[in-house]
Amino acid sequence: MSNPVREHYEKYPYPSYPLFLLGSWKDLERVDLDRWGLNREARDLWIVGCGSISALMFGRRNPRTRILATDLSSTSLRRLRMRLWLHGVHNVRLEQDDFLNSERVNDFDAIDCYGVLHHIEEPKTGLHKLARALRPGGVLRLMLYSMRARAEIEKLRSRVQALKIANLKTLTAWMDDEEIARLGELSSASGLADALLHPLVHVFDEHKLRELIDSEKTLEVVKLEEKSNFILTMRKNS
User: Fold this and answer.
1) How far apart are CA 232 and CA 227, in angstroms?
2) Rounded CA gap, 62 and 43, in Å?
3) CA 13 to CA 77: how far, in whole Å?
């Protein structure tokens, strides 16, 4: 059965960085599991929708943690596998997998699902799958698109869809004709494809976010940020 999201990331793996890019130790603070509010050591981490680089960052910063990194895209996983090999990171196991088919229960002390739930048909179902896989007392980090932060991109994306633009070459030519600046997320090919060609996107306001949070009673929010998009840290009830 066709999966448009998987097909999108096979064609446009995200994000796109040089293979040798590492980032400073300080840059990796946000993936330091000791800062996530766990009351114990994180023995097992699941990175859901790992893309082409995040598991490298987690693996470097958390060398004692067993890490499972899964993604729909074999292309993204090939790039990630090369990065892990180049940089000698050995505590990460990769699987091509749709987490919505997961039957994992109480398997992980921490789960990272950064920029994934807003690309599935029913985010509440996805959140339930993640909660089941988390051990009691474990933490889950989510990033979800904010309606405010995505307002201009969503307007552009609607125009692109109305014109039935389906590839980067046509998209960039149209943007040049319309004199649309390629700034921020739109400055790279992978960012442009992810922002404007993605087949499935949800955006959240405070009401939709609250509905999602309230749909999973086993989780409580311990931290919520909206510097641009929503970033939540949630803990599973003991």
Assistant:
1) 11
2) 10
3) 9
d(CA 61, CA 59): 6
What are the backbone angles phi and psi of residue 8, rounded to the nearest 5°? -60, -50
Instruction: Give the span between the Cα atoms of 58 and 63, in whole angstroms.
Output: 8
Mean pLDDT of 89-94: 98
In which element (H, E) is residue 80 found?
helix 74-87
Question: How far apart are the C-alpha atoms of 21 and 92, rounded to whole Å?
Answer: 18
Q: To which H or E segment does residue 232 belong?
A: strand 230-236
Cβ contacts of 222 within 8 Å, gap of 6 or more:
37, 139, 233, 234, 235
Domains and CATH numbers, the chain: 4-147+203-236 (3.40.50.150), 151-196 (no CATH)
**Percentage of the chain surpassing pLDDT 70?**
99
On whether the CB atoms of residues 204 and 146 are closer than 8 A, the answer is yes
Please give the full DSSP string across 42-58, using - where no structure is assigned.
--EEEEET-TTTHHHHH
Predicted pLDDT at 58: 97
pTM to 2 decimals?
A: 0.95
Spell 155-190 as b/e; 16+ CB within 10 A means b: ebbeebeeeebeebeebbeebeeeeeeeeeebebeb
DSSP 187: G
| pLDDT tens digits, 1-58 | 359 999 999 999 998 888 877 778 888 999 999 999 999 999 999 999 999 999 999 9
